[in-house]
Predict the structure of Competence/damage-inducible protein A.
Amino acid sequence: MRRTSALILIGNEILSGRTRDDNIQFLALRLGELGIPLVEIRVIPDIRETIVNTVTELRARFDEVFTTGGIGPTHDDITSPCVAEAFGVPWEIHPPTFTLLEDRFGRENFNPARQRMAKLPKGATPIANPVSIAPGFTIGNVHVLAGVPRIMRAMFEELAPTLQKGAPVFSRTWHTTSLYEGALADGLEAIQDRFPDLDLGSYPFHREDGRHGVALVAKGQDVQHVNEAAQAIHDLLKEKGGSPVEGEPPV
Amino acid sequence: MRRTSALILIGNEILSGRTRDDNIQFLALRLGELGIPLVEIRVIPDIRETIVNTVTELRARFDEVFTTGGIGPTHDDITSPCVAEAFGVPWEIHPPTFTLLEDRFGRENFNPARQRMAKLPKGATPIANPVSIAPGFTIGNVHVLAGVPRIMRAMFEELAPTLQKGAPVFSRTWHTTSLYEGALADGLEAIQDRFPDLDLGSYPFHREDGRHGVALVAKGQDVQHVNEAAQAIHDLLKEKGGSPVEGEPPV
């Protein structure tokens, strides 16, 4: 069964270049393993209308939607009320989360800003946060995670067992030095035509020390087809004068 | 003057997790410097309809649109014909580029796959590629760059002098250890309310060795407002018992 997912990174820090993203690759790999591959990613600012519209659009188009960022206590943390708006439900205190956070912070430090983190869209299920307590949540097919990578990963692993898995994606890679993509393109396209269910990719590499070459990847849900395509890729690299080595090229 | 840009990363390797993105932060920082800040990023697969629709939507919504990836010689390199389709123009041999590439590869090696790299949307202007010759191009407000970071950066610097600049974005940051966001949220929101033209951000940090704290950033095009907000942030951190230090927290 083919399942799909999309990811929305919410916040200005990636768009401004302040922060280098450290969430995409983790989620891309884990979702591939779970058979719910990522098909689209958006990075958007913390603007109410943009968040509401993006969540509304993507939750209709993909089986699962993940968001990261914007669930802390500050004025720019507006993901949670925006997701409530996208689902047309109230954004309200979630009593068990309120109690959890009040115990954590102590009553005298549990100020209005921190109380915002106890509000969830009505009907949402919290996702436990083993690092810093304040939870993410799931509502419908939308999963709202923290933006801080360590917290996001912990939340994702709490969530993963509850996700409906799809067929896992298999992948095999051959690389060779010295050859260029342009010499392999026709042969690779012929292999792609034989295996229309697979995704064949060609990734040139150029190292600082002058080593260069190309990696060819066959990927798909039919392991037999992936193995046959990998053999054909090996034979193509040989035929064109390369020295095929299985796996990714060394850095 | 407020100018805006969007970025489209085209290709399956980021979505599958094979490759960690190394283009977003460079472009985010350079476009901020040029006063054309990034307002949205999309990562999409190399599917014709998706590319055409995404380019069509974003070029109408933003002043400048940049794409990376999908301009090599292989069957999955379909960015260039898709951009032609989005503009409703033919995709055809660009004679000066054909000559350039034929000289580079030699007539006998200039096979049909490589000849694809000499095709541009009708009316496009090539962007020189000082690394590996095959050019990117500009058509209207869409700028098509390579996906390999070293080549992308070189193309961007060829392009940058031709872009219409906006007002540059100024930014000042204070950080402190020990304090948490939740203690600062109300005070920060009050500063945001005083400077609605600025973008104030709050970024908690948690280091492996247990150091934690928060960085507060004031950003905007009015340098006077940025400086006043930075002073107010400093005073807030002091008042709440922090030890404010200017700049980003050490790693």
Notes: Chain A is about 35% helix and 25% strand. Chain A touches chain B through 64 residues (CB under 8 Å). The two ends of chain A are 35 Å apart (CA to CA).
